[in-house]
């Protein structure tokens, strides 16, 4: 049994994914402690970004993580907002703005 707070399921260890998850982990180990434990979502924004990058790659997962952080501010969404297992066919690498809609589909706050 793993005791990690991040996604522990299987994911391809490609260079982009390793870089992205490494940057998220670096944030968790350094700056996260200064910002405080005030995330309005479950899982936290950094855990969401880590899993999104691990599952869907640096480009798609990075956009998902960025938009999740943007939704976390005052007046934003809250509640359970899990990373989708699969991405919809209209979520392509050349249409990153469409990743913003994922919150409306998966937030149960």
From TrEMBL:
It is a peripheral membrane protein. It comes from the Bacteria. Its main location: membrane. Pfam families: YidD (PF01809). Keywords: Cell membrane, Membrane. It is found in: Cell membrane. InterPro entries: Membr_insert_effic_factor_YidD. Transmembrane segments: none annotated. Belongs to the UPF0161 family. Could be involved in insertion of integral membrane proteins into the membrane. HAMAP family: UPF0161_YidD (MF_00386). This is Putative membrane protein insertion efficiency factor. It comes from Aquibium pacificus. The lineage of its organism: Bacteria, Pseudomonadati, Pseudomonadota, Alphaproteobacteria, Hyphomicrobiales.
């Amino acid at each position: 049994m793993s005791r990690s707070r991040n996604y522990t399921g299987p994911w391809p260890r490609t260079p982009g994914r390793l870089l992205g998850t490494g940057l998220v982990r670096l944030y968790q180990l350094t700056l996260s402690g200064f910002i405080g434990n005030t995330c309005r979502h479950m899982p936290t924004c950094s855990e969401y970004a880590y899993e999104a990058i691990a599952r869907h790659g640096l480009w798609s997962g990075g956009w998902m993580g960025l938009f999740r952080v943007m939704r976390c501010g005052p007046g934003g969404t809250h509640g359970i907002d899990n990373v989708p297992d699969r991405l919809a066919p209209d979520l392509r690498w050349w249409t990153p703005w469409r990743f913003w809609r994922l919150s409306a589909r998966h937030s149960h706050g």
